[in-house]
């Protein structure tokens, strides 16, 4: 599998988002335009770019030749590539996309401080609360539970309909990256830190998930000559 991340504060992000918008098909554009805030549109566009980049790298084709779509429940997919599983996440400073070949994948990211503002009963089961509070209160680990649960809900495609409290997680070990499992989904999960007070999680139904995402930037993308810089400078 390939897990790509982008720091939305990187120079060139807005230009890249505009370029991605240009190559979207009308249905995808409409979905983006439904987002009220410009920052959310940018996050979503960069998520799609990462998704196409990851899928392109796995199947060995330029990213501009691939399309993404969304199932009625919201789960994204790569059009015409049923062997690929795709998951997208964006929050605050980061966008992430995970693509796996022949396995199901789910990814999520969130700012630790935002999860800290949520009450326990919004997402934690009684056993999880007991496990968390058996050790000194650890906001990062608590936020990791949130992203693990969302990653699992995306892996199955159920999304929030799953009810995050119903997705019970058990983490192995005390240090990041945390290895975790849930009876809710047959998959291996990892939670890791991202710079600036964020956590992210990825789940994979076959094989070991990566320990951390690969960061891609518009600058590095230029070097890869995948095509978007040509469109940008037309
Ligand atoms: C999937 C979901 C948990 C993501 O929530 P979020 O934290 O707001 O947003 P994230 O940035 O983490 O993820 C957003 C991405 O998840 C993906 N996604 C949306 N629904 C999904 C689903 N059912 N399964 C897997 N992935 C999904 C999309 O690619 C989306 O990116 P996009 O908006 O750019 O297209 C949530 O939007 C959801 O459950 N949606 C389904 C609708 C639903 O169940 N609503 C009931 C509300 S109680």
Automatic annotation (TrEMBL):
Pfam families, per the entry: AASDHPPT_N, ACPS
GO molecular function, a single term: magnesium ion binding
SUPFAM superfamilies cross-referenced by the UniProt entry: 4'-phosphopantetheinyl transferase (SSF56214)
One GO CC annotation: cytosol
Domain 4'-phosphopantetheinyl transferase: 104-180
Domain 4'-phosphopantetheinyl transferase N-terminal, chain residue ranges per copy: 18-98
Keywords: Transferase
InterPro entries in alphabetical order: 4-PPantetheinyl_Trfase_dom, 4-PPantetheinyl_Trfase_dom_sf, AASDHPPT_N, P-Pant_transferase_sf
PANTHER family registered for this protein in UniProt: 4'-PHOSPHOPANTETHEINYL TRANSFERASE SUPERFAMILY-RELATED, PHOSPHOPANTETHEINE TRANSFERASE
Family: Belongs to the P-Pant transferase superfamily. Gsp/Sfp/HetI/AcpT family.
Protein name per its UniProtKB record: Uncharacterized protein
Native source species: Streptomyces spinoverrucosus
